[in-house]
Amino acid sequence: MRVALVHYWLAVMGGGEKVLEAICRLYPEADIYTHVLRPENLPPELRRHAIRTTFINALPGSARHYQKYLPLMPLALEQLDLTGYDLVISSESGPAKGVITRPDALHLCYCHSPMRYLWDNWPVYQVNAGRFTRLCSRFLLPRLRQWDVLSAMRVDRIVANSRHVARRIRKYWRREAHVVHPPVDTQAYAPRAQAGGEHYLCFGRLTHYKRVDLAIEACNRLGRQLLIIGDGEERRRLEALAGPTVRFLGRLDDAEVRALLARSRALLFPGEEDFGIIPVEAMSAGVPVIAYGRGGARETVQEGLTGLLFDEQRADCLQAAILRFEALEESFSPSVLHAHAEEFSEARFAQAFRSEVERGFAELESRPAHDADGDTDGRRSA
User: How many CA atoms lie within 13 A of 210 on its CB side?
Assistant: First the structure.
């Protein structure tokens, strides 16, 4: 069986790319297709595969400003020749699922999220975009949304990374999705010996929807130590908001992140994520999570057992949640946190993902074929 993996872009490592790594371990001979490739930012697990790019990769400035070429990506995907593959797995968060496959091939889409900037989050992206981008998007968004829905019809089986994403798929694509939570490398973390720590921690890409500004403002008001790991387009603005108890550490390697996690009081997670691998990694290390109670956090954070949820995306609500956490801090058991994180291990993901592929092939083979007169498999009834 020949397998193709289609991922939106391979420019930096994030949660979607970690999932792609896990899928690569299931299909070590698979070829990878993507719009943009920056191999220097990829781990060996991905680089050892044959990686092919669309024509987007050759366009000026695409290595860093690939999202500006979004209107051309549907065309780029439809020009890929995937007729030699029996199984096509698209990894969807940016445009990836719009490829054209053979009628007898299985196309399974693992959806991290329907594109936020096309659907429910488009007003936020508009506010943060330049004037020219805002003007262009007013004309392009309806056409891109139409393509997004129509291309979802080409997929044989859709798997969502959370119940939250499955609801968004039903809302925007009018398709039902099966849920397989992303894999978390729980073996990389050992639960710490006891609760408590030196600082609060935020880490991930510094983009506006992550709402790291709420964590900064809450810790400024409370005078709490906050370490921020990661980089992104929001860093300069966030640094301007930071008080003396907030430090930006930039990108760190995995060992450094694990060491800082182990010494953290709690992970602050104020953004709304479709799933959120980082909170599960924190729980695997025995660290509680204080998260905004929308999106994937509601599926991973158990109130009072593995962390706390706050209801409104405001700094004062996060501040109140931090104070509530500090009153309960000693009650959070690192071993209980780690055991909960094991529910999202890579072994469980691999088993569930393989089952979805098997069900997809079974459904594909069981579908009747109709001829022009409506007879199945060309056989006419007497």
Answer: 24
The residue segments making up the domain with residue 64 are 3-183+346-366
Question: Both 163 and 200 in a single domain?
Answer: no
Residues near 76 by Cβ (< 8 Å), separated by ≥ 6?
Answer: 35, 54, 55, 56
Low-confidence ranges of the chain (pLDDT < 50): 372, 376-382
Q: What are phi and psi of 289, to 5 degrees?
A: -125, 130
18 phi and psi angles, rounded to 5 deg: -65, -35
Distance CA 160, CA 164 (A): 9
The Cα–Cα gap between 380 and 373 comes to: 9
Q: Are 283 and 345 in contact (CB under 8 A)?
A: no
300 CB burial (10 A radius; 0-12, 13-18, 19+)? buried
Q: How far apart (Å, rounded) are the C-alpha atoms in residues 329 and 196?
A: 7
Which domain CATH number covers 74? 3.40.50
pLDDT tens for each residue of 263-300:
999 999 999 988 988 999 999 999 999 999 999 899 99
Tell me: the pLDDT tens digits for 38-47? 999 999 989 9
